[in-house]
C-alpha cells in the first residue's frame, strides 16, 4: 500500500527540526520527510512519487536560498502528481504579493505565520491530511488516529457502507 | 520715434493749442478750472463734450477686476479728454481727476459739430490735436506692451527660481527627515541591543552552569558521560544526508520507528555500535535512555550556539549603531564591513557572497556613518541582484586611501544615469511595496565627502555595477 508523506521544506535547520519534531506523532500513520531548500524538495518529491508513495501535505517556507517557496508551490500545482497535495506556507516573511500568488496560483490550503503557537503545525497537519483523504477519496480507517472526524465523517460513512 | 519727430509734434501740438485758445476766446467759450483731486469725468458717466487740457495734469484711472482703481495715463497740456465717449456716445471709459490746478476747455457736442461745419481752421486745429493725442496714446500703448512682455519674462524667471527653491527645500527636508529616522533607528537599535544583552548573558551563564552540573552528575558513569559529551559535540547533518542514514538505519533495524531513527542519525558510529544489541532486541526504553542523554547534550550545545549568535548580533548592533561616537572615533573599514554583514545577514544569506577583505589601517572618521554607507550599498546590491547570484565585497588600500568595493550581479546602471543616480530622489526601484526614497545614494555620497573621501560608480564588464568607497589615509 502506498504511504502518505508529509514533506517539510525549510532552510533554517533549527526551525526545520522543530517542525519535524512537532509532526512526529503523525508518523504513526504517515511518513515525515524534510528538505533544506526548493531544489532538494523537488528531488525528494520526485523520489516519493517514483517509489509509489504520495505527498499528502507540503509545509514550505517562503524565503529560502535559491528558489523561493511560493514558486515551488505554484510549480507543483501545475503537475498532475502534486495537484492534490495540500500546500501549506510556513513563513514569517512572505509579503502580501507572494501570499496572494500562493493563494491564487498554488491554491494554498493554509498559511502558518512564524513563530507559531504551541502545536499549530500538528493541528494543521491533521486537518490537511483529512482534507487530502477526502479529496483523493482514500479510506480514512488506517488514519483514524490522526484525522479530523468532522472533515472525514461523510467519507467514513461512504467507505463503511462500501465495505459492507 | 526719433527726437526730432517728437519735437516737431510737440511744437505743432502747442501751436494747435494756442490756435484753439485764441478761437475759444473769440467764440466766448470760457476756460474752466479744477482744484487738485477734483473730478473732470467719472467712469460710466454719459459724456457729451470733449475736454482740451490747457494747463496742469489729469490722471486717468479705471476700476480693475478687483474693484480697485488702476492708474492708466497721466495726461498733460494739449491732451484731449473724453475722446472715446464723445465720438461713440458710449458711457465714459475712465475716471479723470485733476492732479494739481487744472485749466481746460469744454467743447460741447452741438457747438463742436456746428463749428466744424462752419470753421475750417477749427477743424484743422482739432484734427491736429486729435492726431497728436492718438499718436501719443499709441506710443504709450506700444511702450506698455513692451513693459508687460518684460514683466512677464521677469515673472517667469522668478517663478522658475521659486520652483527650484521649493524643490531644493523639499529635498533638504526629505534628507533631514531621513537622517532623523536613521538616528532614531540607531537609538532604538542601541536600546534593543542593551535589553537583549542582559537576558542573553544570564542565559549563557545558566547554560554553562547546567552543563558543568550535568557533567559532574554523571562523572562516575563513563557511559552516560560519553553520551552527554557526544551530544554536545554532535555534528550537523544535512537533510539529504539524514535521509540516506535514516533509510539505512531502518533497513538495518526494521522495528525501529522513524522518530527514534531520526534521533540516532547524529550518534557517532561507536555509540551506535554500543546500542546494537538493544536495537536488535527492540529494548526501546534502553534506546530511549541513550537518546535522552545524547539529546540533553546536543540541546545544551544548541542553546550555546544560539546564544553565541545572539551575543554576536548584539555586539554588531552596538558597534553598528554607535550613537554618541566622537567626531573622530577612527574607522577600521574591515570591522565596519564585518558589522554590516552581520546586520544584513538576513538578506545576504540568499546570495553567493564573495569576500576579499584585507586588514586595513584605521583611518579618521565616524564608523557609524561608514556603516550607514556600507548598509546602503549592500542593500542596493541585494535589490539589484537575484537571490543565488553573486555579490562581491572587496577592500584594499593605495598610497592615499583605503577602499571598499561592492559589486552586484544586476543589470548595471545605464550610462545616462551614472551621475544622476547620486542625486536625491532618483530611484530605479519601482513600486510593488519596495520602499525607497531615492535618498540612500545621495546621503551615502554626502557622508563619504564629509569624510574627505569619495563614492564612485562603474559598471562591470561582465554585467552589474560596482560602487567604490574611498576614505583618505590622512586628512
Question: If you had to describe this structure to a student in words, what would you say it looks like?
Answer:
The complex is a heterodimer of chains A (164) and B (475). Chain A has 164 residues and is an alpha/beta fold. Chain A has one domain: Rossmann fold, CATH 3.40.50. Chain A is built from 6 helices and 5 strands; from the N terminus they run βαβαβαβαβαα. In chain A, α4 (96-106) links the parallel β4 and β5. In chain A, α5 (120-136) packs parallel to α6. The two termini of chain A are 21 Å apart. The model of chain A has no long low-confidence stretch (mean pLDDT 91). With 475 residues, chain B is of the alpha+beta class. Chain B folds into 3 domains: 3-118, Jelly Rolls, CATH 2.60.120.10; 199-319, no CATH class; 325-472, 2-Layer Sandwich (Heat Shock Protein 90), CATH 3.30.565. Chain B has helices at 3-27, 83-88, 109-118, 120-217, 222-232, 239-252, 258-264, 269-274, 276-280, 284-320, 333-343, 345-348, 367-384, 440-450; strands spanning 32-34, 39-41, 49-55, 58-63, 69-75, 80-81, 95-98, 102-108, 352-356, 390-397, 401-407, 454-459, 465-472. The longest helix of chain B has 98 residues, at 120-217. The interface between A and B is medium-sized, with 22 and 18 residues.
Question: Short summary of the structure?
Answer:
The complex is a heterodimer of chains A (164) and B (475). Chain A is α/β, with parallel strands linked by helices. Chain A contains six helices and five strands, in the order E-H-E-H-E-H-E-H-E-H-H.
Shape of chain B: rod-shaped
Structure class of chain B: alpha+beta
Let me know the CATH homologous superfamily of the largest domain in chain B. Histidine kinase-like ATPase, C-terminal domain
Q: Total strand count of chain A, please?
A: 5
Task: Please tally the helical runs of chain A, counting DSSP H or I stretches of 4 or more residues.
Answer: 6
User: Would you identify the CATH architecture of chain A?
Assistant: 3-Layer(aba) Sandwich
| Oligomeric state | heterodimer
**What's the CATH C level of chain A?**
Alpha Beta
Specify Rg of chain A, calculated over alpha carbons.
15 Å
- Helix-residue proportion of chain B: 55-70%
Q: Which series of helices and strands of chain B comes N to C?
A: HEEEEEEHEEHHHHHHHHHHEHEEHEE
Overall outline of chain A: globular
Under CATH, the topology of the largest domain in chain B is which? Heat Shock Protein 90
CATH homologous superfamily of chain A? Response regulator
Which regions of chain A have little confidence, pLDDT < 50, spanning 5+ residues? none
Q: How would you characterize the largest beta sheet of chain A?
A: 5 strands, parallel
| Gap between N and C termini of chain B | 67 Å
The CATH class of the largest domain in chain B is Alpha Beta
Beta-strand portion of chain A reads: 15-25%
Amino acid at each position: 500500500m502506498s504511504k502518505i508523506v508529509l514533506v517539510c521544506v525549510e532552510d533554517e535547520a533549527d526551525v526545520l527540526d522543530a517542525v519535524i519534531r512537532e509532526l512526529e506523532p503523525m508518523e504513526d500513520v504517515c511518513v515525515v520527510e524534510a528538505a533544506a531548500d526548493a531544489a532538494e524538495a523537488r528531488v525528494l518529491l520526485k523520489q516519493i512519487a517514483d517509489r509509489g508513495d504520495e505527498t499528502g501535505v507540503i509545509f514550505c517556507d517562503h524565503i529560502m536560498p535559491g528558489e523561493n517557496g511560493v514558486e515551488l508551490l505554484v510549480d507543483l500545482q501545475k503537475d498532475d502528481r502534486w495537484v492534490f497535495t495540500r500546500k501549506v506556507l510556513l513563513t514569517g516573511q512572505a509579503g502580501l504579493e507572494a501570499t496572494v500568488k500562493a493563494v491564487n496560483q498554488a491554491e494554498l490550503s493554509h498559511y502558518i505565520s512564524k513563530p507559531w503557537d504551541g502545536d499549530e503545525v500538528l493541528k494543521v497537519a491533521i486537518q490537511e491530511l483529512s482534507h487530502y483523504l477526502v479529496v483523493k477519496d482514500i479510506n480514512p480507517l488506517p488514519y483514524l488516529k490522526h484525522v479530523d472526524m468532522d472533515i472525514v465523517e461523510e467519507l467514513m460513512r461512504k467507505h463503511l457502507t462500501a465495505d459492507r | 520715434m526719433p527726437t526730432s519727430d517728437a519735437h516737431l509734434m510737440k511744437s505743432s501740438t502747442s501751436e494747435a493749442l494756442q490756435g484753439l485758445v485764441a478761437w475759444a476766446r473769440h467764440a466766448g467759450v470760457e476756460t474752466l478750472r479744477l482744484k487738485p483731486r477734483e473730478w473732470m469725468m467719472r467712469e460710466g458717466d454719459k459724456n457729451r463734450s470733449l475736454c482740451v487740457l490747457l494747463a496742469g495734469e489729469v490722471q486717468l484711472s479705471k476700476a480693475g477686476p478687483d474693484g480697485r482703481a488702476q492708474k492708466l495715463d497721466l495726461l498733460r497740456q494739449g491732451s484731449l479728454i473724453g475722446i472715446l465717449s464723445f465720438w461713440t456716445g458710449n458711457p465714459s471709459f475712465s475716471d479723470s481727476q485733476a492732479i494739481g490746478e487744472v485749466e481746460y476747455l469744454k467743447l460741447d457736442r452741438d457747438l463742436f459739430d456746428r463749428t466744424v461745419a462752419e470753421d475750417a481752421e477749427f477743424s484743422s486745429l482739432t484734427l491736429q490735436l486729435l492726431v497728436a493725442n492718438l499718436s501719443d496714446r499709441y506710443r504709450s500703448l506700444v511702450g506698455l506692451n513692451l513693459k508687460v512682455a518684460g514683466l512677464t519674462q521677469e515673472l517667469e524667471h522668478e517663478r522658475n527660481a521659486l520652483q527650484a527653491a521649493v524643490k531644493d527645500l523639499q529635498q533638504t527636508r526629505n534628507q533631514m527627515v531621513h537622517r532623523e529616522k536613521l538616528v532614531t533607528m540607531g537609538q532604538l537599535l542601541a536600546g534593543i541591543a542593551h535589553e537583549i544583552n542582559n537576558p542573553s548573558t544570564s542565559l549563557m551563564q545558566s547554560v554553562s552552569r547546567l552543563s558543568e552540573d550535568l557533567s559532574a552528575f554523571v562523572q562516575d558513569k563513563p557511559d552516560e558521560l560519553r553520551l552527554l559529551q557526544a551530544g554536545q559535540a554532535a555534528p550537523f547533518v544535512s537533510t539529504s544526508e539524514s535521509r540516506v542514514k535514516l533509510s539505512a538505519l531502518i533497513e538495518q533495524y526494521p522495528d525501529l520507528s522513524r522518530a527514534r531513527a531520526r534521533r540516532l542519525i547524529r550518534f557517532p558510529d561507536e555509540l551506535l555500535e554500543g546500542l546494537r544489541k538493544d536495537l536488535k532486541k527492540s529494548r526501546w526504553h534502553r534506546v530511549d535512555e541513550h537518546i535522552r542523554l545524547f539529546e540533553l547534550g546536543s540541546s545544551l550545545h544548541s542553546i550555546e550556539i544560539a546564544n553565541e549568535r545572539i551575543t554576536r548580533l548584539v555586539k554588531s548592533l552596538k558597534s553598528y549603531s554607535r550613537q554618541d561616537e566622537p567626531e573622530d572615533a577612527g574607522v577600521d573599514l574591515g570591522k565596519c564591513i564585518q558589522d554590516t554583514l552581520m546586520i544584513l545577514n538576513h538578506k545576504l544569506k540568499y546570495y553567493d557572497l564573495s569576500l576579499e577583505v584585507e586588514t586595513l589601517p584605521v583611518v579618521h572618521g565616524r564608523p557609524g556613518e561608514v556603516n550607514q554607507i556600507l548598509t546602503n550599498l549592500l542593500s542596493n546590491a541585494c535589490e539589484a541582484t537575484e537571490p543565488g547570484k553573486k555579490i562581491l565585497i572587496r577592500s584594499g588600500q593605495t598610497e592615499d586611501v583605503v577602499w571598499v568595493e561592492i559589486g552586484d550581479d544586476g543589470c548595471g546602471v545605464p550610462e545616462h544615469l551614472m551621475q544622476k543616480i547620486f542625486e536625491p530622489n532618483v530611484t530605479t526601484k519601482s513600486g510593488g511595496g519596495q520602499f525607497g526614497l531615492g535618498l540612500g545614494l545621495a546621503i551615502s555620497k554626502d557622508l563619504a565627502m564629509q569624510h574627505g573621501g569619495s563614492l564612485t560608480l562603474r559598471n562591470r564588464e561582465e554585467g552589474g555595477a560596482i560602487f567604490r568607497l574611498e576614505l583618505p589615509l590622512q586628512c
